[in-house]
Amino acid sequence: MTPDTLKVACSSCNLRELCMPVGLQPDELRRIDEIVATRRKVKRRETLFRSGERFSSLYAIRTGVFKTRVMAADGRDQVTGFQMAGEIIGLDGIVNDQHTCDAVALEDAEVCVMPFDRIEELSREVTALQRHVHRIMSREIVREHGVMLLLGSMRAEERLAAFLLNLVGRLHARGFSRDEVVLRMTREEIGSYLGLKLETVSRTLSKFVQEGMVEVANRHVRIVDAEALRLLIHPGN
Amino acid sequence: MTPDTLKVACSSCNLRELCMPVGLQPDELRRIDEIVATRRKVKRRETLFRSGERFSSLYAIRTGVFKTRVMAADGRDQVTGFQMAGEIIGLDGIVNDQHTCDAVALEDAEVCVMPFDRIEELSREVTALQRHVHRIMSREIVREHGVMLLLGSMRAEERLAAFLLNLVGRLHARGFSRDEVVLRMTREEIGSYLGLKLETVSRTLSKFVQEGMVEVANRHVRIVDAEALRLLIHPGN
DNA sequence: CGCCGCATTGACGTTCGTCAAGTCTAGTGG
DNA sequence: CCACTAGACTTGACGAACGTCAATGCGGCG
Description:
2 copies of one chain form a homodimer. Chain A has 7 helices and 11 strands. By secondary structure, chain A is α+β, with helices and mostly antiparallel strands.
């Protein structure tokens, strides 16, 4: 049994291999515990932050899945990513001390609130943390390069295949099945992320089913032939 | 006449309002001079760095324009951005100590080489520098969100209008004309960036000319009606 | 002067978006 | 527990936007 007042410090968090403390020594780990000021629960459909709000903290996702979206002046919106346990959101707010996108919980979620000035302070002293913060931001830049490649040069099938493989891969890294996903987002949200309309997402999924590459039951997706999906993306030979 | 051995320190660089030293106090400015190890000239069509190369430095562009591009396994490539004087490139390399995109000079160019470990070292001591490095990375993330919006939800005309306005805006911030651009990139490169084929870029430009919004003579573009272009992007009313 | 890369333009094809109808599911309240 | 509803999803028919293929023009560089 765990004690009643369960202090969920980074040092004892089961996400420490994925999240903020990656690559830190035990003594550094203890110092990083100071970063997490509080935790915050966010209910399904609620926002963690919205575009225009003052930026003060980064958030480490403990449980649940978020989407981030940017909105144009005319109401068009674009989902810029889906984030899950161990991932850090809020980096967009640093430039202008103001968030430029919305983060919406796709299911009940919990995050660790990490005041950014505290992060900066500590990363002046703990080089491993400094390094890690830089890496997190760089990783996000590289991820977005990948999305740009996807949006700029892939066709619907390739985009969806890449999306499914990416999702299942990240879940697998978190100890979930290598070939099963329960989608936390609607077809429309997937479409927005992939630059497609929801009907195209639906049709393309149906096509994958028909060709025996995946099985779909509502939001439950089972990857039957991952290699075939991979081949879709990289037309080998 | 300037002295023969012109030491181009950040503190005396005419890009200091745009580049690395933004927001630093005079005394901090002197310290930041240590960051720039060397300068490097890159000829047109040559690369500053390539995907796979070991990452060691960030680069501040002094003169010239670069494109960055990512390449998929099957050879497809996507231009992820065009960078000009005062902008910082190489951020993609931080995550894995290895570059993940190519930076190609679109014209003869010169960059300041800033070894990243030196940046990290100094930004532990100079808080304003630390802040600024974080902002630069965050700005890049936000910029890419904008590109994702463009690629995911805009039509050809809107994409090209956004591209032209963005380009002319950045040039204007550097003291160039508010309405004239000499494109340093081909139609194909513009297309790759915008997720369009070169023919579509050409046709759309022609359409803009026909409708009196721009004048085009080869790579020389003159924005005649910026407001009309802006209206294309944000269908006001 | 001649070549080559870049750009333009046209005709046609494909992919994806639009519109619409209908089904299914999960959540709600009686 | 069941009926009801609203949102989510699927599927089809059609059309628009953009890509593909091809011919031609043009301008800069050697």
